[in-house]
Design goal:
Length: about 325
Amino acid sequence: MKALILEKPGELDSLTVVTNREMPEPKDNEIRVKVYTAGLNPSDYQVAEYDGLESEKKRVLGLEIAGIVDAVGSSVNNFEIGDRVYYLRSINNLDGGFAEYSVTTAHTASKLPDEVPFELAAVVPAAGYTAYQAIMQKLKPQSGGTILIHGGAGGVGGYAIQLAKICGLKVITTCLGKDIDYVRVLGADEAIDFTKGSVYEDILNLTNGRGVDYVLNTISPDSATKDLEILAFGGEMVVTAGFPDFSRIRFYDKGMSLHEIALGAAHTQGDFNAQSNLARIGDHFGKLLAEGKIVPPQITTITMEEIPSYLKKLKEGKITGKVAARVI
């Protein structure tokens, strides 16, 4: 089968399209999927550049996958051949989405409504599920509150803005100046150009000095530490890229709650309930998409051959929205 393989672990430039990759076979609890579209993510280039992931066969990247069930394992009873599906692949699964066929565990995949095109479904599982878990499952925000969402023009941020609006929140987001109109279309009430250097001063001005009730930080521990300054008393913070430095505040200063998102670790930690939650998120997210309650981010559609160059663009921060590679 045709696939984009990583010839040399640690070298992004070693990604190579081949036509003789062996087709994966599903195990008892797995399904094989004919891949129609696969999404690109930062973890793809991060894994490609990591030198400590030697494996028994060459790795196929691609975490976000949408396609049609082609074969099922002997113990699978929740999918049939021909079902439309989408899912978040385990990082330990060497048969990823940048190939004509992929496999995954049946209890982590979701059926895809007919109304949702593969190109849209393939840019949801990593960014969309992360945003969903952060807003809907971790924060469970009260309507009327205010949230700061970093990087509103990115994958997680774009979905988070829309989920926050569904929950009745006022949304403040950061982005590049060129993306301000884009994040406003997604629903942001206020957009701040983070290159101007006055993000936290602007947030305090917008909230009359109180700060925000909720923060979604997808940037870094340093950024999350700065967020402590504008988190209102009793506020909640969700982090995806590292904890803030709590030595900057004293106990009782904030009365805050902190939530960590480690979405893909559900696969690697082996917790069946956490893994099954991925499918539950996908089931609900698919309904939101089918009902038009979540609009797609700006999607750039490319070919398999273009994946390496677009992973470099993603690494350099040159992508607005999401990128989907059409495999079929």
